[in-house]
Amino acid sequence: MAWYYGDEKSFITPVALPSLEGWGYRKSHEIVGSTAGAQTNYQIRIKVHRTLGMDSGEDVYLVVYNVETGTWTVDGNAYHRRTKITITENSGSDLTDYQVRVVIDTKWLVYNGYATPNGNEVRFTDSDGSMLLSFWRETDFNQTETVYWVKVPSIPASSTKTIYIYYDEELTTVPDASDGEATFEFFDDFLGTTLDATKWTEDAINDITQTINNYFRFEDAAKSNGTYWIYDGTDTGSQHQAKVTLPTDFRVLFTTKISDTATSQMGQGGVAIIATDNTIIVYPSHGDLSGSIFSIRRYVVGENTPTNLGTGWSGDANECWKGVGNLDRAKWEILKSGSLATVNDENGKVCDVSISSTVSKIALTAGAYGGRPYLDYVQVDYVAVAKYVDPEPSVEVDTTVKCRADFGDIRFTKSDGETLLDYWLESYDGGVATFWVKVDSIPASPDTIQIYVYYGNPDATTTSNHDATFKSISDVVSVEYEFECRSTNKGDPKVAFCYYDGSSVVVPSQETIYTDLPTSYIIFSVTKDIDETHKYLHDGVFSSDHTSRTDDARIRMDTATGNTLTDRVWLIAHYSDGSKSPPIKPVFAENYNPVYRVWYERTSEVQESDDVYAGCGTSSPLHLNVLWEVTSGPQLRKYVSPEPSHGAWGSEESNF
Prior knowledge:
- The strands form 13 sheets. Strands 12, 14, 15, 17, 23, 24, 25, 27 and 28 form a 9-stranded antiparallel sheet that branches.
- By secondary structure, this protein is mainly β.
């Protein structure tokens, strides 16, 4: 990673622009006014990402690919853009003709005008910048994650290797060079309408009925009661076996999609690793195992019991499964390394299966059951075999992060590009930071206001200012509240509420807010000596048990379902029980329309009177005084409905 000042793609005539001295970059951002009217000193949330992405809404991205510009002749065409890719060998072995997985945010390339929308012009070369490398594009172009598999001739042990990806928005007529057959040890994407006899031994074991039409579909297979069903590693099912000499360790990539529209249907379809006696070693598949109800599953059978099951997977002896819906599509990966096969899908880890038998081949494999119609189909779009080592080489596409890791160089200014706006950095996790920016003036809809976000100053430190950005409740709130619960004939309870009316916090007298409540539906309970970990604020009406209890440290309000606050905001002290639940942030009710909204809690202390307990089912009133000692406590931000919204982001500016 490097600090980068300037974008060779952009040819900018130097102009004296108002700007912050010492900052390398800025982007403009449009804020659209609210139909509720013009606003002053309104807090707007902006999320700043240290990752690649396209600016939109409240999100702005400050990582870019390092796009080299020049002129290179590649595959007979003149290219003007390329990016370096660094491969690091981690297994300690020299690798030859190894397939590496390269993930590119091609949507970013298209969005920034570097590549054509279909990406047909993309090429990869060796470190010399001219020797073409075979590759296959697994996923669609113009996506945030486009997956390429690139065959690299040589990767030295425990060293790094440089390759390049080339692209050019002007090369709109260059044909696509994605080629799975040239890239993998074995590849078939089932072009045409017949099974390729140079790649498969058809019906090597029993019989399969299929349709091929730029995909492969299992439509039936040999049946005889349960004879050809695949239960475990002693079974074979029916197989088309691939004509490939497998590496010692290898990766299998394939997809399956199931169509199952009748409860009477049963079947299995997928790709298996096969032993020398043609029995199953590991078999990821789609299937329906019932024949009387829908039991559609992703399904893995192993010669040994699957272990280390992924989230959502269940299993028993020799199999694991996960329930799915009709037309589910799975992307499978089998990693064979030594005596272990690891099965993954697009969601991550599925399971591990230990290998006892000698691996011989891979096969399109089906299981069918006598007396039951087969599924509509199980479809396979492609099958690929690649080399594999553990640990794999790591791949890094050359990028530049344009802001500090702690986001300390982020600044916001008014539209003049110079007048700083107060802001508060709420949080950051290394990848994204959440900022609140106080914008001094936002016009009413449909008018807009422009602000700038500045970044790219490695020597800057944060000027985040919580108190300057928000209005503290301690500035406006009285510290003492009285909660009163009364009962007349076990009904008509009353409590005190507070809300902000635009100039001060109002603490009204006791108001009747519920009527005709059932017996004992409001309970107050307070105990002493409550430590800070037990304190938090809560908004809303509880719907929990209404049993009288004194053993938990809380002020508690229980109400019947259906009794809701529709025109008031409330703020009460509330304590967790022994589970020490984390704090819940207090928020003004959105169906009330205050000028400010309480939204964040830092610290607060609650002091209570002597122990008290009473239920509203009694005829005596209960008085409970609670003292709020607010230090830097709950904060208020302005709020209107609808809120001002985020408009367009401008292109990055530099060389101010």
